[in-house]
Amino acid sequence: MERLKLVLQYFQSNSESISNGICIILALVSVKLYTSFDFNCPCLPQYNRLYSLGVMLVPPIILFFLGMLVNRHTGVMMDEWLRPEGQRSKNPAVVKFLFSAMLQRAMLAPMVWILVTLLDGKILICAFSVSVDPHLFSGFPNNTGLDVIKIMAMVPCKDNIFGHSSFRKAVTRYVRCYSQAVGWSILLFFIVLGSLARLIKPFFDDHARFLQTRYWSNYLDVEQKMFDETCVLHARDFARKCVVQFFEEMREDSVPMLDRPYFSVSTKDDWDCEDEDRLHGVTRQEQMDKLLDKWFCSKPQLDVRRIANRPRLCPGCSKRSLSSEV
Amino acid sequence: MDKFRMMFQFLQSNQESFMNGICGIMALASAQMYSVFEFSCPCMPEYNYAYSMGLLFVPPVWFFLLGFVMNNNVSVLAEEWRRPTGSRHKDPTILRYMFCSITQRSLIAPAVWLSVTLMHGKSFLCAFSTSLDIDRLGNFSVFSGISELERVKLLARIPCEDEVYFEQHKEIRMVATRYMKCISQTCGWMLLLMMTFTAFLIRGIRPCFTQAAFLKTKYWSHYIDIERKMFDETCKEHAKSFAKVCIHQYFESISGEMRSIHHNRTYGSEDGENGRELGDEEKLMGIRAQEDMNKVLWNWHTSKPALALRKDKVDLQSNGTLKGYANGEANVLLNGHTSDVEKKEWAVYYSKV
After folding, report:
1. Which residue of B has its CA nearest to A224?
2. CA-to-CA distance for A49 and A9, rounded, in angstroms?
3. Rounded mean pLDDT of chain B?
4. Which of A2, A124, A274, B47 is least surrounded by CB atoms within 10 angstroms?
5. Which residues pair with A284 in a beta bridge?
6. Which is one Gene Ontology cellular component term of this protein (chain B) (predicted)?
7. What is the interface pTM, i.e. ipTM, of the complex?
8. Is A159 in the same domain as A239?
9. How many Cβ pairs closer than 8 A exist between chain A and B?
10. Cβ of residue B352 closer than 8 Å to a chain A Cβ
11. How far is CA B306 from the centre of its chain?
12. Chain A nearest CA to B227, separation (Å)
């Protein structure tokens, strides 16, 4: 239990590792999907190849789209790509970085499916059993009235015409051997490609620029998360105050209002010095609409000097700050 | 048990992940229900198709409606749709957004049922065995020289494994099963591909058109949900305080004595968690009579308040906090610090007048 919590905490530590975690989960889902899928070769010459290649290629496409869907960076990238320039200049390198990272992660699950397919061999046996030359093997059933192609198409299925002959098993082994060879070669190819890319990249890439691009793409992700969180907190506060105000308004309708103090109802967790700060001065629907509009149409500058130098006043540190004001 | 509790806590952390959790549970329930359910084809030409298609399409409709029922946001949506305008405008885009998000979540369990059914293939075999062109699949002597009606009856019996109706039954059944399963699985994969592609298009293309408006609708639909919760919480607290004060008043009226209600309050570090609890009087917010409370509840639906906090109220509160602390003088605001106990009493007493 503790281990699981640690693993979860590690993966949630930054947005990149969340994406990596999701990517790995999708790859595992892909394997599980393959093992639970009941592959059923039609054993008919006209349909074998179509069905097999369909099963080999359509799920990877589905997994690819799924990989792009569940990745948070898709939204961040689209947002950064489509927003008007406003007060913040656009950096195409960041968009490219996000796009390539997203693409790489989305390609993992499809590749896993294709590799598992090839290493298992069922699908290729179904697709290419008709192309195998039956004379390479002994025990070909001559006594049935069917032609060669139809018989070879039935090899993947445990049918009666083969009985207990070793012909079917021999052909199956043969095709599976090819299939596994192709699978391992593809795996080797990608690993070599990946290692080469890793080793050679520093020679061709500007590392300093890469560090900047990576920082700002991570920043965009975090900024969007923070914005969503701030909106949620703001909505909560707005709602609470709106409700209280509503109750008080009802009271004012029935009793004439003198110069009375305003009461505020606060529950236990509410009355910090940060409580007012959560509204940040946005107290009307029109203001909020304008804020949300501007967030997309004209993102603010990347310059936080104004708020960083603002003095903080709160019970814990007010003594310090008050004295500093003097 | 611990694992379940942790997962439960995580799912309840916010409304969205709670709804996603429900969605996931329903999808699993859908898959489990299919595996538990025993599909038994009637093997009669008149009923095969109806039974199979019924089993293919009726449970998804049921799951879809169940998704609507289990989703809390449906009542929020209905309320927002039906309320009179009052002093707050109604925004149709918010209603559309909420409806779309509810529909999307409800579509997952039906999609799982459809996929699992199609991948399994039995329902297709049962439905379409009578329309099979059996001669294309192989040379079977049992079908030669019989009337059309007999042929259809024989074909309809193919999906059933119980008895061997004719000598080539097992072989024909295997060939037909493979063929129909192949078609059924193809349909299943195509359905999955179409759904994933549509979802991808919606998610990928939408930002091209409506990103700014989308942020607004997302915010306000979440706001409506939270406001409803806050209102329910405030009503509950009000009811509690109302009850306490009412009972206190009743006791007082019986005993004939006037005792200050303040002594019942908890101060600072003596009791309570962080000494910021207000008294029951304050929690009433001035609503002390049944008619007033009825009016509050009635107007909450018929005339929702405008989305605008009074600026003077907000300013007063923030000024009050600063002044009250910095100067240590009596202030209009109650802020629960132990040093301000006397000020609190004065303020409350004032309100009673």
Report:
1. B215
2. 46
3. 77
4. A2
5. B308
6. plasma membrane
7. 0.80
8. no
9. 214
10. no
11. 27
12. 5
Res B311: pLDDT: 64
State the average pLDDT over residues A251-278: 48
Q: Which of residues 15-74 of B touch A (CB under 8 A)?
A: none
* Secondary structure of chain A as H, E, C letters: CHHHHHHHHHHCCCHHHHHHHHHHHHHHHHHHHHHHCCCCCCCCCCCHHHHHHHHHHHHHHHHHHHHHHHCHHHHHHHHHHHCCCCCCCCCHHHHHHHHHHHHHHHHHHHHHHHHHHHHHCHHHHHHHHHHCCHHHCCCCCCCCCCCHHHHHHCCCCCCHHHCCCHHHHHHHHHHHHHHHHHHHHHHHHHHHHHHHHHHHHHHHCCHHHHHHHHHHHHHHHHHHHHHHHHHHHHHHHHHHHHHHHHHHHHHHHHCCCCCCCCCCCCCCCCCCCHHHHHHCCCCEHHHHHHHHHHHHHCCCCCCCHHHHCCCCCCCCCHHHHHHHHC
Nearest CA in chain B to A316: B325
A156 and A220 part of one domain? no
* Whether residue A170 sits in one domain with residue A91: yes
- pLDDT band with cut points at 50, 70 and 90 for residue A266: very low
- Return the closest-CA partner of residue A97 out of A210, A190, A263: A210
Q: Is residue A308 part of a domain?
A: no
- Could you give the CA distance from residue B47 to residue B54 in angstroms, rounded to a whole number? 10
Q: Are residues A16 and A72 in the same domain?
A: yes
Please identify, among A205, A239, A263, the residue that sits at the C-terminal boundary of a domain. A205
Which tens digits make up the pLDDT trace of A25-37?
Answer: 999 999 999 999 9
Quote the CA–CA distance of A63 and A113 in Å, as a whole number. Answer: 9
Residues of the domain holding A81: 2-205
Per-residue pLDDT tens over the stretch A145-189: 778 888 888 888 876 677 667 888 888 999 999 999 999 999 999
Q: What is the pLDDT averaged over residues A244-261? A: 63
User: Which has the closest alpha carbon to A82: B91, B204, B285?
Assistant: B204
Q: Is the distance from CB of A32 to CB of B33 less than 8 angstroms?
A: no
Inspect the interface and report whether the beta carbons of B285 and A82 lie closer than 8 Å. no
Q: By CA distance, what is B195's nearest residue in A?
A: A62
Q: How far apart are CA B107 and CA B102, in angstroms?
A: 9
